[in-house]
Amino acid sequence: MSKLVGTAGVSVLGDKSLEFYRDPVAFCEQRIEKHGSRIFQSRLLNKPTSFVCSVEGMKELLCEKSSVFLKDPTDVMHNMYGDNIVTANGEEACLLRLSLTNLFTGKCLASGSDLINSVSERCLKNLSATGEPVSVYPLFKRLGTELVLGLFLNVNPDETPELFQEITALCTLHWHGIISTPISVKVPLWSSGFCTALEAKDKLMDIIKDKLECQRQGFVGYLRDLPLPDASCASQHLLLFISALIPKALASLLTSFTLVLSGAGKEIRNRARADPDYLYYVLLEVQRLWPPFIGGRRIANQDTTLGGFHIPKAYAAMYISHAIHRDPEVFHQPEDFLPERWCGRNAGQEHLLCSLGNGPRNCIGVQLNNVFLKVACGYLLQHYDWDLSPYSQDLQYKWLPVSRPTVPPMVSFTELELESSATDLPDGPP
């Protein structure tokens, strides 16, 4: 057992949170190079923290020792979302997963396919109509918002536009609580961002509770029938499901997909258009290189090890998906976009990605996310060619709170002339 490389410094003065949040990728790359290790320590949120940047370390943290490294009950997610499957630990988390998983698989997942197809068509059908370039990130965020509100709350922007706009605005305010200093202050004419987010949360909860009382069909109906621990559990989870997290993650991945397949990516576009298996590999490679979230944080509930390094009880562990997905021990030419790796050297290794977590505590909506991506990307491929407009743009990424280019990219779409086209993508790997 070895001592963790790096230093956790002293309380407050040794904290590196500002440096990490300014550029988490550079933060990790510099320390990996300095220490010659993809597991190292520093101080984050004024807590000694082991940073995990290797595939093996991630598997140990999230899979083999998931009962040792727990979610932090003081995390800002708990303040913003309350008790739910993301913030729970132990037996409570296991029981919630057993109850909720069926909502995102099988019959429940299939029941949403018509809505997913219709929303994708409504949001993406006129991208070339004006001949002007489109700012794709807000476009895809709107698509994601329509999907989650339609699927989880049965709110359609055409049927109830005022309610749709109200929920969308509240979700945006609520999201700001995650990226704000967790201090609730309200004085005449001014409220802190965190206070405003908590007020938005209360208003969203009122809307959600009304839906739970009035609706018997669709996702809300399925959720009502589940054996959940208490009366507030269903509303807390609906808050999580309709929040800005999912639209932003979807917008992040769709933006990266669009950018990497623009212009010189025409050959990849053509191949993905004709071959559902290859599109699947393209989407895996997009998630590998541009995961929507930088990673996740756990707290050790006992003395343990990671990668042969001693981790004391109460130490935090932060896995960094961007670095894990570029581990050269697993992914050769880690910086290159190579969809073929998923039918070659890395065939069958999709489980090594952690874009949406990994192990027994991974996101329960992984299959739903894959369906969203498959349908939306399939629609784009079947109906358009596209390119950056202008061709030269600053595509430097920022990584927090979600990964996307710092400057919103502009893309021009050209409609394909097809004898027939379909919204649905032919069946491929799940």
Secondary structure topology:
Layout: H1 17-22, H2 24-35, E1 39-44, E2 47-52, H3 55-64, E3 69-70, H4 76-81, H5 90-100, H6 106-111, H7 113-124, E4 134-135, H8 136-153, H9 161-176, E5 186-187, E6 190-191, H10 193-214, H11 218-224, H12 233-242, H13 245-260, H14 266-274, H15 276-289, E7 295-300, E8 304-306, E9 309-311, E10 316-320, H16 321-324, H17 366-383, E11 384-388, E12 397-398, E13 404-405, E14 410-415
Parallel strand pairs: 2-10
Antiparallel strand pairs: 1-2, 3-7, 4-14, 5-6, 7-10, 8-9, 11-14, 12-13
Helix pairs in contact: 7-8, 7-17, 8-13, 9-10, 10-12, 13-15, 13-17, 14-15
Question: What's the pLDDT, averaged over the residues?
Answer: 92
Shape field: globular
How much helix, percentage-wise, in residues?
Answer: 40-55%
Distance between the termini: 40 Å
The major beta sheet can be summarized as: 5 strands, mixed
**Low confidence ranges:** 419-426
* Lateral strand order in the biggest sheet: 1-2-10-7-3
Give Rg in angstroms: 22 Å
Which band does the percent of strand residues land in? 5-15%
* Count of DSSP H/I helices: 17
Broad structural category: alpha+beta
Number of strands: 14
